[in-house]
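So, can you check this one?
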Amino acid sequence: MSDSALLRPGAGPDDDLVTPSSGGPAGSREDAAGDPRAQAGAQGAALAGAEGSRPRLLLVDGHSMAYRAFFALPVENFSTTTGQVTNAVYGFTSMLINVLRDEAPTHVAVAFDVSRETFRAQEYAEYKAGRAKTPAEFSGQVGLVKEVLAALRVPVVEKEGFEADDVIATLTTQARAQGFEVLVSTGDRDALQLVDDATTVLYPRKGVSDLVRMTPDAVEERYGVRPQRYPELAALVGETSDNLPGVPGVGPKTAAKWLAAHDGLDGLVAEVDQLKGKAGQSLRDHLDQVLRNRRLNRLVTDLDLPVVVDDLVVAPWDREEVHRVFDALEFRVLRERLFATLATPEPEAEGGFSVRVARPRGAAEVRRWLDALGDAAVGVHVLGRWGAGTGEATGLALAAADGTAAWFSLAAAAGKAGTDGEGPAEAADGPAEGSVLDDEGRAVLATWFADPGRAKVVHDAKGPLQALAGAGLAVAGLAGDTALAAYLCRPDQRSYDLADLALRHLHRELRVEEEEREQGEEEPQLTLDVDGPATPEGAPDPAPGAAVRAAAVAELDDVLAAELAERGGTALLAELELPLVGVLARMEARGVAADGAQLRALEDQFAATVEEQAEAAYAVIDRRVNLGSPKQLQEVLFEQLEMPRTKRIKTGWTTDAEALADLLVKTDGHPGSGFLVHLLAHRDASRLRQTVEGLLKTVAPDGRIHTTYQQTIAATGRLSSTDPNLQNIPIRTEEGRRIRRAFVVGEGYESLLTADYSQIEMRIMAHLSGDEGLVEAFRSGEDLHSFVGSRVFAVEPADVTPAMRSKIKAMSYGLAYGLSAFGLSRQLRIAVEEARGLMDEYFERFGGVRDYLRGVVDEARSTGYTETILGRRRYLPDLTSDNRQRRDMAERMALNAPIQGSAADVIKVAMLGVERAVAEQGLRSRMLLQVHDELVLEVAPGERDALEALVREQMAGAAELSVPLDVSVGVGTSWHEAGH
């Protein structure tokens, strides 16, 4: 029913709540993943109930909480690469994970409204009339919420003709009769009438992350009545969002006083003639209305539902379905929090790994053990630290798929045992000095690693290879990377943790399997084949865990290789992604030189601009406000300056960047536009200052910035850059280009050279579609967008105006990403009909593009996947989904993946070619950065001409297309100067 009952005029739904003084957690926290309760999780709670403790039922009002999540999280910050808005789904799912963790229910269900056509609307036609239209961005997200719930195996309960409140009330009544404790998570205050000693409402005080516990005492403290009287109070005062008018002149305090004096609404009605004053007369005049309100806000407690409480036992969630749904929604961080916070489904693992760990140290022992491995691929797991282009291994394990394993300690002394993975190692008791690999043994191991004929398989290999190199163990013969293989099999998965892959593909956990024993035998100790002294008593022994991981890698390699072969990705792994690992590792180690003084000067300049623009904005309105506060900006823009309203949101009128940019265009000449100009300039300068601050923090002692490249993030195959993200350095504004000036040529080199592809995605579109018009445009050498514009607008190329060209450019690229007429209209700020007409004209002139776009979706629907020119596949099962939103998302992915994925493949081929050619020609010049379609290289003295010719040849020849690959080259002493 009402999401905001008892609202004063102009009040927000959260304005009249206070934090109750009752005990218990006041809500959930995003940073509480480490809470000890997380170890129990929702699944563990079911066992507690079975053992005799009081069972606990959690009921969630799905629509209410999703709607609040929608307004709590900025739309612009939550969307997939295909444009599907996901803020409501994200917020709801985050809230649910937290509540399941914090409350550990034994039973759970989520209720939804089916429609507004309920018995209440039949009695009172104006019920809920006048509610604001549901935002377009929210539409469809309820369906996605239900998909998340299905993956988590949380029952969804609905009843035609009734509301979610009635479903919740019915289940609450049943549960209390069976001795349950009930928790109701809802933003609808009509649920407060359910509160009693066994029932608590978890009400969202702020967004959906801060939940207030509304107990009987809390309800009375806030409203002056006990929970069972709350709907009577609401009947007198009215419920704004349900369009139930209250008695004029009667507020909550008067209503509560009357109900207390007359023992409730029935007694008040019986003695209504005794009430004095204007308020009493007003009640008599509107008594029928009050009684109708009470009939409508009374929750139904005896519905005939398709489930009973016993059907709502918390079940293990569907791990595979969680992967699928979260992959499609691109909820990488949220999935990691789900796995870390709630107990994983049981039973999924069939066991652990059986390993026997040798500890060879001397040359003879090491050689004998390595020779025994034969020619089979060997799993490698490295302990140590790596990042920013460098690393150092402190230990490693090698293992065959049969569980034969060896541990090699590389630690120089105690206290340097290292960590299992990337990052700085905390001090720990290291292995005993006698267990460390000696110099001769280390030399034998180094020879083995350097032998390209000995196949090695590593999980997420780039970091471990950097660590091994730092320990003097250069690696050749990398035959597999289980993270990359899993990524190529399922590029939408987003998480490729080794433990997760072992469970998914091997159905085993990363633990040492215990030996079987007869009943009555003592618990066995871990069996190890120890050829050297053990670690000191009490010190953690890294060998078994490392050996298990190495064995898992070796076994996973075989399983993933078979799956990859079925999906046509074997060559892509062997010939493109694996060779690229070494190239990226070397690029990260080289880094790019940064002018620290220039960066600091830029930081000061942007900080000064922030202050200047703030002062200029204050001068327009003649007062100081917090320019980062949406609430204060709303008051300034729409009340003080009386500017046109933007899009309505839960907290008022949006002040996000897109809305304010649109507002500035619409209000040119408005007295308040000056404030808007300074506000937007303030935001831009703040963003640029933050960018520079981030860069300064990453300048290494060698004066260079070493980014980290990731191959398994983007489903289309594009590389990602992080810590810092050098693919996100602004280039379209002069202020942003100033940042690129701080990236300079390093000592011992004469210049930077940049090379990029011109309009590569449109060239791939021309190749894939075979459209004669597009092919002719590229072969003619004319400006593409002017050429296309001349065809669409029926004018000579010379007569294509900048406005025409801009429209054609936006549409040409937009079509490759599934842009709709509505999306084009928003991007170009034109009417939807005009945008649709423009698209029709485009397709009339370039029918090959239209046919290709239709065909690629149809083919993907038939085969189940899309494919790039190099055979990179993206499987899209949602193309046949019954859910329209999911189907639309998949169709946009089908349009996007072949073009953007092919562009990613081409630049990767070019990188391999450039790196190989530089080595073959014996040049000192080197490749430093890849930024989407651009390469940045450092030119050694005297090598410019040779390097430019080499780069042009390798990039232009990276793919055989029906149109030429055009490469632009620039040279300068800074990244900016080398731009072109």
Q: What stands out?
A: The radius of gyration is 33 Å. DSSP finds 35 helices and 25 strands in the chain.
